[in-house]
Amino acid sequence: MKALIFNPDLSFGVVPDPVPSPSQVLVQVSAVSLNFGEIAYRSPDPRPGHVPGWDAAGVVVQAAADGSGPAVGARVVTFGWSGAWAELRAVDTTELALVPDEVDLALTGALPVAGVTALQAVRRLGPLQGRRVLVTGASGGVGRYAVQLAALEGAHVIASVGSPSRAEGLRELGAAEIVLGPADLTGRVYGVLDNVGGRQLAEAFYRLEDDGVIQAIGKASKEPTTIDFEESRSRSQRGRIENFNVTTPFGDDLARLVGLLSRGELDAQVGWRGPWEQALSAAEALLSRRVQGKAVLTLS
What we know:
Layout: E1 2-6, E2 10-14, E3 24-34, H1 36-40, E4 55-62, E5 75-79, E6 88-92, E7 96-98, H2 105-108, H3 112-124, E8 132-136, H4 141-152, E9 156-160, H5 170-173, E10 175-179, E11 189-194, H6 198-206, E12 208-216, H7 229-235, E13 240-243, H8 251-262, E14 270-275, H9 279-287, E15 294-298
Parallel strand pairs: 8-9, 8-11, 9-10, 11-12, 12-13, 14-15
Antiparallel strand pairs: 1-2, 3-4, 3-6, 3-15, 4-5, 5-7
Helix pairs in contact: 3-4
Domain Enoyl reductase (ER): 7-297
InterPro entries: ADH-like_C, ADH-like_N, ER, GroES-like_sf, NAD(P)-bd_dom_sf, Zn-ADH-like_protein
Organism: Nonomuraea dietziae
């Protein structure tokens, strides 16, 4: 089958078809999405023939042998830590969700890693009704989902972006305020969903209210974080930073996101969409911050 692989740069190759385990379905892939992390932090020494990719949507062409999961013909969105960027994907039945006929299947391909990460991080902040929540890197894939999901929980969402142009559409998604970095923030916040790391994570920490919490999700800045705890004693309260790691299986959370999408309560925020033959262009646009939200590739 045809697949996108790193060899060492992103290019097409021919690899063996996947062989599903008894608890896996075989999916004919119709759309995949690119995530900043799987491109920016890819291995410098990729394994020959290894198919990368986390997110894919498509149609089941072989049901799981153990009887779990959907039947042949079902439209599904899927997750796994590899194997998405190919014509066929074998995926565990606990790592997928059904997609209704009225929902654009390609849009659901943008949901798995970014959407579930945002959903789980918002959940870990606890009750948010009426609380101030800062989202750093709000213009990215995880950030745009986090703004929407925190707003749905009743939070007063403050979206932090790198430039005014990156703020486009964030108020419509639920942001009550927009700032150019945590240093521009007025007042304190209860929660922070940090996708940037580095200096922005430190600045956000100094602005926590008493017993506030940061979910340290990503490191888009590629900078180390240095916190001056002597300074923090005078600038912050008893806040804390939690190292966020997304947990599997994704199935239930994916189903919740698909439900929100189908009801019009969530926007997939696909900022780039095109055929997978343009994968290199999409990856370059994502890494250079020219994509607002997610990049989705469709297979013919």
